[in-house]
Amino acid sequence: MSKKLFLLLPLLASSALAQTVPAAPTVTLSGPAPTPEQAQKLAERLLLSNFGPGSQAEVTYGLPAALPLKLPAPFEVAATVRAKYSGNGTAFYRVFASAPLGASAARDALQAQLTAQGWKMQQSGQPIGFEGNYQPNFLNFYREGSTPFALNANIIGTGSGTGDSSNVEIVLNPIGQQQLAQLKKQPNYMPRSSLPLLRALPGSKSAVKYPATGPSGSLSSVWVQTDKSAGEVFNHYSAQLKAAGWKALTDTATGPLRVVTYGLKDLNGREALGTLGIRPWEKDGGYVLTVSVQGFKP
User: Fold this and answer.
1) Is 162 exposed, middle or buried (0-12, 13-18, 19+ CB in 10 A)?
2) Are 276 and 237 in contact (CB under 8 A)?
3) Mean pLDDT across the stretch 140-163?
4) Whether residue 157 has pLDDT greater than 90
């Protein structure tokens, strides 16, 4: 059985589980090695669970030459699946790859490669907020041309601690010129508050509550397990807010709770207020932090 087929099976299983499991899923192959026929049947079943009944799937180990996408090192491509649903003549592609990098580093490397290849990032203004050790990292790009494409990438760290490896799944959809025009206009559709990406504290373990957003604000929170002091943890995140243009206004402490308010402008240029708060988490140790954007001026 080929090495690439072994690589494909855990990636397919991880893709199926990633929507429901907060930590990175793992796949262990135990017992005797599967025969090529068994591996083929398992791959077909996993593909069916990913694409649904009535679909047609064509597997290429590596990247099809016709795709406007290259993934050189540090990425290793296990396979690309070209899928088409019955009754729908439009095909789309799913690329299963991996990288010997944590999720944040893999995301940055992929973003740099796509940009160099002429892909343009979709600036939707969605909130981001705290990054956890196993928080999926998303990228959305589009590419102009005679056949435009939309690209959505999902990067999930699979290592321990801050992560030393990642699974990468990329979906490419051929789109029409009208859809392309909509993607290019998308940042102007709806004003949205924006939280900057706050990188995880090196050497810590963290669990993230996914950001909540509404017309007037956004909020993200994280539980951080570390042996560092509250001041060191707070300074790690507040430095990133300062780098994003947030200006501290007040610094208030009530017992173990500390909250700093900030003045800022969101991605749409609106003046707003932001907060960063920290408190110890007595039950399991560590700290809980919350960052928010709110209070827009008219």
Assistant:
1) buried
2) yes
3) 84
4) no
